[in-house]
Amino acid sequence: MSTKNFLLTLCLFTICVANAQIKTAKHIKSKQNYNAYLFVYFTGNGNEQEAIRFAISKDGLNYYALNNSEPVLSSKKISSTGGVRDPHILRGQDGKTFYMVATDMVASNGWDSNRAMVLLKSNDLINWTSTIVNIQKKFPGQDSLLRVWAPQTIYDEKAGKYMIYWAMKYGKEPDKIYYAYANKDFTDLETAPKQLLFTPDNGAAIDGDILQKDGKNYLFFKTENAKVAGIKVAVSDSLTGTYKVGDSYVQQTTNPVEGGGTFKLNDGSGYILMYDVYTKGRYQFTKSKDLNHFTVIDDNVSMNFHPRHGTVMPITTAEVERLAAKWLSTDDVVRTTSNPAIKKININLDTAAQMLTLPVGLGTNLAKFDPLFVQFPGVNISPKGPQDFTRGAVNYNLQIAGGKAKTYQVRVVVNNNPLFGGLYADPEVLYSHKTNKYYVYPTSDGFNNWSGSYFKIFSSPDLVQWKDEGVILNLVKDVSWAKSNAWAPTIIEKKINGQYKYFYYFCAAQKVGVAVADDPAGPFVDSGKPLLSKRPTGVHGGQEIDPDVFEDPVSGKDYLYWGNGYMAVAELNKDMISIDTTTTKVITPDETFREGTEVAYRKGKYYFMWSEDDTRSPNYKVRYGYADSPTGKIIIPGNNIVIEKDTVQGIYATGHNSVLNIPGTHDWYIIYHRFNRPDGIKMGEAAGYNREVCIDKLFFNKDGTIQEVKPTLQGVTKPQLPQAKN
User: Fold this and answer.
1) 590 — phi, psi (to 5°)?
2) Secretion signal: which residues (predicted)?
3) What is the pTM of this model?
4) Tens of pLDDT along 275-323?
5) CA–CA separation, 620 and 613 (whole Å)
6) From CA 42, how far away is CA 55, in angstroms rounded?
7) Could you give all domains of the chain from N- to C-terminal order, each with its CATH number?
């Protein structure tokens, strides 16, 4: 073989080997086993909240905060403003380099205060380098630039570079989505910004997120039009080409949303679109197989933190182990129980005593109970499987990635308080003679500043086992005169012309409305206008809220009570959907009255109960008085507290109650709300919209006065069934 042919053969061989290596590298990357997820997010407005936080998940639906919910990076060290928001994370093309970008901004400086973004890079998800890119300083002609929002990164295969895209606003122009390419080291932008998305109406567009599927680029973004705002999808065959904007919105809520983020599930079952329902203080998750049709899956999602505008990236076993070794504590792991019998929002961990208390409902088999701790890679938990908790606490040993083992005493206790899972307040209770069931009608809680917009109902045959019957009235869909602040309902069952009717009085937009149904579980139809929208004559403060309906067993008349800051009463007309305004009377008992009137009749006395203080206060409590008629005068006993906090048990803000007499018996119960236990007391004023519904026995003394109720964790300890009248 000639030297020339040998060199040619060698060259061809080298090229083949190189191509084979490239193909092998791509093959390895495509086959990389992702079996967990990393959620990158911030938590709110304020320097401590405007920072990057991490959480991990095994299934992409249930997430657990790392680093005890504290930031994993110092905002002061990586930003020019002292805060970062809207973090986005991307795995690099080599499969082992990671890129993050974030808005360099502190909200307290104003929404038009930032001109920069932060670029970050890491090889291990733990250690990050960062640089600040100030668009206004870097590129000429940026004098009218007002803000730089929500950057994200994607690899442009055609250009062979990482593309960053984000929203900017110039002067009086609307926000628009731009793009530029990062330099090789991912420390700067090497090209000037160009507009990426052109909307047909030239409307505002922010919070862009691109997901690639079947050779197409799906750009999810939020519109900011004056009349309509929400998430739309624009599709393009080219990453920087022309995007065609779809007609419909894809968010599955009528509430305002922002920060849409998408990711593909590791099991191949579809895609997740999640977004920040920021007026409600929560996230919503939806699932899709085609990126056109989305189904809400919130019932399958849980988080032990409250994220704002973040992104999710699939990760490997080795990466989970690395993150766990750095930022996951055994205290975090021991809280990750997934047994559905556990009331998860009431799990209590005493870190000093290393005691974990898991509350469950009546009927749970404690002899063979498995807490089902989430098994993250690199985390060892023993024992495994069902254990016998009838004899007390069981010791569990936990060890993370070869670190020091820690032993926890885990006990499982039967606590029927709260009555049902989730956050609810202002409970109204009804026994239906039509269905022979009990019903609780609460305020849907857990929304910032009491901003819920729908009402749910729970039913029970015995006050022990409760069933979620779903939404019975949605202000947005079912009520024309109000769309927000769905609060404090009350209901009455009436038999009219041989047929049962249900009249449901509720608060909306600080007014009182009424809806009617033929069944205690609905559907309810709104009357079409507020029943009460003005203060009574002579009242100059307070709100028209917290109705209570009462049928006087002596006269047969029906009364409606209401008021915040004052207690008013009026007779209902025979139609039950209007009041006789000539009978309106203000009967405020004393200076302790705040809200939440509840009226009951027992042995010739009319009992009036009300809540004192503010629902955000740990001292929120119930007081009472009594009268000889349903309209007063109210007599107040010397000690008139019905129920109040018990700090020893960690029970706070026990208020806004209703009462129930078990049919055919002399047994009475009080249904009320309290701060979420154990975390509510740590929330400050936010505890006032993170409440839960409880029940306890109510006792009367021989003279008719009410014994003060000691709130319990146990609640109803055996089924309560109505009896024949005695």
Assistant:
1) -165, -170
2) 1-20
3) 0.84
4) 999 888 889 999 999 999 999 999 899 998 989 999 999 999 999 999 9
5) 5
6) 11
7) 21-327 (2.115.10.20), 330-414 (2.60.40.2340), 424-698 (2.115.10.20)
